[in-house]
Amino acid sequence: MAYPYRHEKEVRLMSEAFGDPAARTIEGWRARGGYQGIARALEIGRDATVADVKASGLRGRGGAGFPTGVKWSFMPKDGTRPHYLLCNADESEPGTFKDREIIRWTPHQLIEGCLVGAYAIGASHCYIYLRGEFFEATQVLAKALEEAYAAGLAGKDILGSGVEIDVTLHVGAGAYICGEETGLMSSLEGRRGEPRIKPPFPAAVGVFGMPTTINNVETLAAAAHVARHGGEWYRQWGTEKSTGTKLFCVSGHVNRPGNYELPLGFPLMELIEDVCGGMRNGAALKAVIPGGSSVPIMDAGECVSCELCYEGVEAAGSMLGCASVVVMDETADIVKQVRRMADFYAHESCGQCTPCREGTSWAARILRRIEDGRGTEDDLDTLMQISEQMTGTTICVLSDSLAAPIISSIQKFRNDYLALIRRGERVGAA
Amino acid sequence: MSEAPFRNPGWAGNTGEFDLAEAEVRGDSYVGERPLDGGHPGASPSLPYMLVKKDPSAPLFEGPYQERLDKILDRYPTSRAALLPVLNMAQELRGHVSPGTMDEVASLLDLGRAYVRGVATFYTMYNKRPVGRFLVQVCTNISCNLCGADEVLAAFLDHTGTELGETSADGNFTVVEAECLAACGFPTCVQINSRYFEDVGADDVTAIIERLKAETGDARL
Ligand SMILES: Cc1cc2nc3c(=O)[nH]c(=O)nc-3n(C[C@H](O)[C@H](O)[C@H](O)COP(=O)(O)O)c2cc1C
Ligand code: SF4
Ligand code: FES
Hints:
The structure holds two protein chains of two kinds.
Chain A: H1 26-31, H2 36-44, H3 46-56, H4 68-73, E1 84-89, H5 99-105, H6 107-121, E2 125-130, H7 135-150, E3 166-171, H8 181-188, E4 212-216, H9 217-229, H10 231-234, E5 245-252, E6 258-263, E7 266-267, H11 268-275, E8 285-289, E9 298-299, H12 300-303, E10 307-308, H13 310-315, E11 324-329, H14 334-348, H15 354-371, H16 377-389, H17 398-412, H18 414-429
Parallel strand pairs in A: 1-2, 1-4, 2-3, 5-11
Antiparallel strand pairs in A: 5-6, 7-10, 8-9, 8-11
Helix pairs in contact in A: 2-6, 2-9, 3-6, 5-6, 5-7, 6-9, 14-15, 14-17, 15-16, 15-17, 16-17
Chain B: H1 22-26, H2 28-31, H3 64-74, H4 83-94, H5 99-109, H6 113-120, E1 134-139, H7 142-146, H8 149-160, E2 173-178, E3 190-192, E4 195-197, H9 205-213
Helix pairs in contact in B: 4-5, 5-6
The complex binds flavin mononucleotide (FMN), iron/sulfur cluster and FE2/S2 (inorganic) cluster.
């Protein structure tokens, strides 16, 4: 089988060239239709570009799913102060591995997306905030950016339009919280990546105190295609509320994990059984995390009729998030995996809010105790209480992101916890 | 009916459809060697190499590094914003960011010493103390964990004869646990200096270690 895995049911708008090194170069990318999106945007103008993206129904691919065109229209229209576009390439939500593929296989796709976004919001500077670990992917992007500057596609007078857009690659240094949009702004300014209270919203007071829009890598890549083909074109895929295609990052216990670009609304079971070649070793499905580690875990029953769109996953009791589908079979140790997530969030909490700082590490300690067979049933109540106190009480939603898997796993896999707890009691009594 | 994934530890995935060499998958064949002065100003903050040679007393910001620094400062409306890129560059040269280095960076950017320490210690990737020539970071987060990351981590510790976070006696290896590296579909993902090794299983570890030992002379990895 070839890498990257492909499947006939895919609709490859963004991922067609994944795995094809010839698409990395500017000539290669142009031969595949690249940079026609920014050319058309410059032709139809800023307002029409925003209108197109609004009409496309494109929603943010970084997790929250906020309509991109609407977000862009929040930016002030007056041209007196600098505006900034920040491209969020901090990809660090466990289970998510799509942005890196876009960057390392199709760097020009991202650069074009940044140009379209910056033009649409009236920004003359776009910073791409890359996670520091992405060294190899970043060098590919750096090379592509140099090509774009040399070809007059970045910098002054883009494509002879008189429009100026600079693009700067900014490399982080290993902190999940810098993926949160206001944490990213703090980090870009040279501070600790501490999130800020909203309001003020970034469109009013953003990075360096200026109007700012933050978009995910995949969002901007998709926007480049919308700019090229128009908003209606994009709606031919997906559902009414979740238009277009999405990169699904499938990992865990399936035969063919990988990135698959599918129309939104694709059935979860078809993704697992067909596109990903079924469960590893033919084992039974136990649980799925449909949207990255911060969304509620689904049990096998909830997966049966789940459709992978924003409203579909919500109806099934979870969230689509960034469509990072982590698949677990009957051998998976749910308690251990939730504990591992708790360790992660405890490590990544920026420490500003007490419920998050204390809650994440307290939960991690209790979960470790249960995993080691030293837990009690009361611990489960305590975990539920902590999680409730961690929800909706903090500056950003990192805190809620741990509460979701804890609460859902205790509700849906209580027996897994109880088995460990009872085993511990027996050991203790013996 | 379902074919098992082709395992190809060392870089991501198989090459079937496009018949790729490692350099093509990694991007090296496209990128070549980026210039130490950072190249185009827009790309200049993107260049922290992780050098095998780590010289804790290397002078900061001389020659091409001074040029890179000037370009970086030019890309931001405030000099404070250059702090992370500058710390990255300091680590590229010295292998870790000591309190002394933090102070040097503080005076260079005209920022408070305590401020710079507060920022530098916030970020995981700044090594606060020296690490081996190869910093081996094994992802043990959920997707990798489900597919055996704990055994891969144990194999690296075993084969390098180190404890978690400690450097081997020959100065070659420091093995640490990492959070998700955004390569979850190719478990286990291991970052070694600048490179990603994907699809790594516990039984691949010997070969990877041998390969690294053969590369200890290389300047940039
Ligand atoms: C703790 C936390 C971490 C996040 N990490 C990322 C990330 O790594 N990449 C990303 O694009 N968005 C991340 N987000 C979402 C961003 O805050 C933001 O919603 C997104 O970048 C907006 O772009 P979009 O509208 O294009 O989705 C994170 C959010 C939170 C609360
Ligand atoms: S919720 Fe956690 S990560 Fe977010 S700002 Fe508060 S302490 Fe920091
Ligand atoms: S969980 Fe290991 S790379 Fe994402």
